[in-house]
């Protein structure tokens, strides 16, 4: 966004909090890499999209705006996102709305319940997320894969997306990113872990799950020696 160009969007406070939380799940916690230690926002038509990535996973969440608009784009550091979410939690009106106003120098967040905060615009270049989103395009020329190696911590992030009781997963090969769709307002991507050269693509039941017959035979009971009888009191006397 060019300095001096003021753009404003308005939406429900709960929806702003939702997309900020969901996108921040996938952003990097490394403050040394500002461009990914942030949530990138952009409005198009009557939708506002929030995007976050740490280079291994990506999440994009959208919501509806009160009015159609275009040209609004901003990058919020994760610390700024945290500040906005905390302030939103102080709103007393359950159905409050929030207006985001950006001019390239500052980002003003004003809630209909009266709370307002003005944040300095970060030096992070806005709009870079568009290149990240192109990675979500399908790869029809890739061969399907029988097996993939994934980091379970990456997958756990998707469980925290709103309405994540069911998600659709698309595979495009064991070296290609997996695409994830949750509901109608979230898409994401997770990078696979490189498979070791000696890893088999075929499924093999582990031996400990299905042991061979000889290993399933129960151990024979070991005969115990009879215990010696204790002498009676009469015999001792």
Shape: elongated
CATH-assigned homologous superfamily: DNA Polymerase III, subunit A, domain 2
Query: By helix and strand content, what is the structural category?
Result: alpha+beta
Low-confidence stretches: none
Helix content: 10-25%
Task: Give me the side-by-side strand order of the main sheet.
Answer: 2-3-9-8-7
Distance between the termini: 108 Å
User: What CATH architecture label applies?
Assistant: Roll
> What is the number of E strands?
9
User: Main beta sheet: strand number and arrangement?
Assistant: 5 strands, antiparallel
CATH domain fold name: DNA Polymerase III, Chain A, domain 2
Region (Disordered): 208-237
Biased composition (Basic residues): 221-237
InterPro entries: DNA_clamp_sf
What's a concise summary of this model?
InterPro entries: DNA_clamp_sf (IPR046938). The protein has 237 residues and is α+β, with helices and mostly antiparallel strands.
Describe, in plain words, how this protein is organized in 3D:
A hairpin with a 3-residue loop joins β4 and β5. The strands form two sheets. A five-stranded antiparallel sheet has the order 2-3-9-8-7. The protein is an alpha+beta fold. The protein has a single domain, classed as DNA Polymerase III, Chain A, domain 2. It has six helices and nine strands; from the N terminus they run βαββαβββααβββαα. The chain is elongated and about 100 Å long. α1 packs antiparallel against α2. InterPro entries: DNA_clamp_sf (IPR046938).
